Automatic annotation (TrEMBL):
<feature type="domain" description="Glycosyl hydrolase family 32 C-terminal">
    <location>
        <begin position="399"/>
        <end position="533"/>
    </location>
</feature>
<protein>
    <submittedName>
        <fullName>Glycosyl hydrolase</fullName>
    </submittedName>
</protein>
<dbReference type="InterPro" id="IPR013148">
    <property type="entry name" value="Glyco_hydro_32_N"/>
</dbReference>
<feature type="domain" description="Glycosyl hydrolase family 32 N-terminal">
    <location>
        <begin position="50"/>
        <end position="353"/>
    </location>
</feature>
<dbReference type="InterPro" id="IPR013189">
    <property type="entry name" value="Glyco_hydro_32_C"/>
</dbReference>
<keyword id="KW-0326">Glycosidase</keyword>
<dbReference type="InterPro" id="IPR001362">
    <property type="entry name" value="Glyco_hydro_32"/>
</dbReference>
<feature type="signal peptide">
    <location>
        <begin position="1"/>
        <end position="19"/>
    </location>
</feature>
<keyword id="KW-0378">Hydrolase</keyword>
<comment type="similarity">
    <text>Belongs to the glycosyl hydrolase 32 family.</text>
</comment>
<dbReference type="InterPro" id="IPR013320">
    <property type="entry name" value="ConA-like_dom_sf"/>
</dbReference>
<dbReference type="Pfam" id="PF08244">
    <property type="entry name" value="Glyco_hydro_32C"/>
</dbReference>
<dbReference type="InterPro" id="IPR023296">
    <property type="entry name" value="Glyco_hydro_beta-prop_sf"/>
</dbReference>
<keyword id="KW-0732">Signal</keyword>
<dbReference type="GO" id="GO:0000324">
    <property type="term" value="C:fungal-type vacuole"/>
</dbReference>
<dbReference type="Pfam" id="PF00251">
    <property type="entry name" value="Glyco_hydro_32N"/>
</dbReference>
<dbReference type="GO" id="GO:0004575">
    <property type="term" value="F:sucrose alpha-glucosidase activity"/>
</dbReference>
Length: 591
């Protein structure tokens, strides 16, 4: 059994801030402080260009912000002592490009043994509205839910607390005036804060009442309830992890910005239409206190099951786009997936996704999802083919990462000549084991795009349903006439990464995140096959290998230690401290 110790401060914290620790934290002796948790990223199921925790269990992304130097910070719900949910801390990682992540020491510890730190967000208090940062403009304030549990294990209250960081988000200390928003409810959580013109705004979920509360504050310490957004969209059985973000509206073809709107997202679970967890979004207007959706529709971010609780980065993002990362799993089976027993870790984040809104005739504003610039992990082009009917087979067993980027475009399809079996199949398989992940377009019906993970055999669970499809709207196609359209342009961009597939259909109008777990050898062959296409149809295929984003951080034993130089190079106020540390670290283990 682990021996448990309560200590007055997390190690490394006092040294970092030089301040007095005014609120105690509880540190389990098995949890490292001041150094990251070490991990091994070599397992057959370990994603190579996605973030996953060094070991054990993670869920929601938290506290995401990009600092003035362009360093991206992600915190996450982390159990540092086990491969199922519980004992929530805020794990932490940083990146310069959203693909290469440096594991950092755990950032937030529970204040007491029975008070896990639930989901929340972080902001940069540039103007020192909080008063925590008299001499700096890069102070970070995290706002989180402290989930109090009673000694008998029953749920106590969920209250909102803040913690501040003088060193750009690496070490935090709890504010001694917590909670900043008190409550008598055991279901009040997941604050997400933004800056609106001259004040802070928080959206917080009254989870089981299906209410998103809007709160305002001048200083992040005192909060006033301003409005409620309640019982919209799919309810499931709880509303969780709300986000509000300013988001550009772009012309779908030129990508030019034509307007700015607000987007409210709500993650609902359990009880999603496909089972378990789902995220819905509402485009709308926001006046600083009240959110008004543009219409009464419910729209979903993904058409499969494995993208939940996504959060938007706070800070100056490139081109003002809204950039998110989601938790790539589903509460129906997140704690059972085989990565836990086979490799000692569970769950990853999605790829970084760039979001904007666009007008779709007949439908209104919809969210477009594009994968963030992949160039830092792009490797060699393995195939580039233009064809009509025919097939392309790419053996990628030689790609060390096991990760691929695949792009397929279908143009000039004469829809009046479509036949019963006019299909474009994109299949990932292993010829030795027969395991296969099927995807493709079926042009014969209402043009669905489908995914079938049922022939990948490493995980059997009643809720791990295997088939997903979407019928892409062509209302954003070159001519906005109703379906079918002669000149319809069908595209798929996909990233497959050992045990996770993400697809972006028709320039990101639809997207999906799909976990799959090969029982045997990794999938190693990609086949793109166009069948019964009308004459004149052009199919172009490009397949690229991707470089592992983790391999460069491994030592000879295959262990990724993360940022172990932190205490040596820590600085109290320099915004570039994080970057310096990365360079020192990368120098150690570069290839
Ligand atoms: C969503 C969620 C949040 C909560 C956190 C606990 O996945 O249930 O509502 O804060 O996970 O880990």
């Amino acid at each position: 059994m682990l021996s448990l110790t309560t200590i007055a401060a997390a190690i490394g914290l006092l040294a970092a801030t030089g301040a007095t620790q005014d609120v105690s934290t509880y540190v389990n002796a098995a949890v490292p402080t001041g150094v990251p948790v070490a991990g091994n990223y070599t397992g057959d199921l370990r994603p190579q260009i996605h973030f996953s925790p060094p070991k054990f269990f993670m869920n929601d992304p938290n506290g995401m912000f990009v600092d003035a130097n362009g360093t991206w910070h992600v915190y996450y719900q982390y159990n540092p002592t086990g491969s199922t949910a519980g004992n929530q801390h805020w794990g932490h990682a940083t990146s310069q490009d959203l693909y290469h992540w440096i594991n950092q020491p755990i950032a937030l510890f529970p204040p007491t043994k029975n008070t896990p730190v639930f989901s929340g967000s972080a902001v940069i208090d540039v103007n020192n509205t909080s008063g925590f940062f008299p001499n700096q403009n890069n102070g970070v304030v995290a706002i989180t839910t402290l989930a109090h549990y009673n000694e008998d294990g029953t749920a106590g209250t969920q209250t909102q607390a803040i913690a501040y960081s003088h060193d750009g988000g690496f070490t935090f200390q709890y504010y001694n005036g917590n909670p900043v928003i008190n409550s008598a409810s055991s279901q009040f959580r997941d604050p997400k804060v933004i800056w609106y013109e001259d004040h802070w705004v928080a959206v917080i979920s009254y989870a089981q009442e299906f209410v998103i509360g809007f709160f305002t504050s001048p200083d992040l310490k005192s909060w006033t309830h301003a409005s409620n957004f309640s019982t919209y969209g799919l309810l499931g059985t709880q509303y969780e992890c709300p986000n509000i973000v300013q988001i550009p509206v772009r012309d779908f073809k030129t990508k030019e910005k034509t307007d700015t709107k607000f987007l409210l997202t709500i993650s609902a679970q359990p009880g999603a239409p496909l089972g378990g967890s789902i995220t819905e979004y509402f485009p709308g207007d926001f006046n600083g206190t009240h959110f008004t959706p543009l219409d009464g529709a419910t729209r979903l971010t993904d058409f499969a099951k494995d993208n939940y609780a996504a959060q938007y980065f706070y800070g100056n993002t490139p081109d003002g786009n809204a950039i998110n990362l989601g938790w790539a799993s589903n509460w129906q089976y997140a704690q059972q997936v085989p990565t836990g027993n086979r490799e000692g870790w569970r769950s990853s984040l999605t790829l970084p996704r760039v979001n904007y809104l666009t007008y779709a005739p007949r439908i209104g504003l919809i969210m477009v999802d594009e994968v963030y610039d992949l160039s830092p992990v792009m490797d060699q082009e393995l195939n580039s083919t233009k064809m009509g009917n025919g097939d392309v087979v790419v053996d990628y067993s030689g790609v060390d990462s096991g990760a691929l980027y695949v792009e397929v475009n279908v143009t000039n399809i004469n829809t009046r000549q479509i036949q019963q079996y006019t299909t474009l199949n994109i299949t990932f398989s292993n010829p030795n084991t027969g395991e296969a992940l099927y995807t493709g377009f079926y042009f014969g019906g209402d043009t669905p795009f489908f995914i079938n993970r049922g022939a990948v055999k490493g995980f059997d669970n009643i809720f791990f349903t295997d088939k997903f499809s979407v019928s892409p709207s062509t209302s954003t196609s070159p001519s906005s006439s109703p379906l079918p359209d002669r000149t319809a342009n069908w595209t798929m961009k996909a990233v497959i990464d050992r045990s996770i597939l993400e697809v972006f259909i028709n320039q990101g109008v639809h997207s999906a995140t799909v976990l799959f777990f090969p029982e045997g050898e990794p999938l190693s062959q990609c086949r793109v096959a166009a069948q019964d296409m009308p004459s004149g149809t052009e199919v172009s295929v490009a397949v690229w290998g991707l470089k592992s984003a983790w391999a460069k951080y491994q030592n000879e034993q295959g262990t990724v230690l993360g940022n172990v130089t932190m205490s040596a190079t820590n600085s109290t106020s320099s915004g570039s401290a994080g970057q310096k540390r990365h360079m020192v670290y990368e120098g150690k283990f570069s290839y």
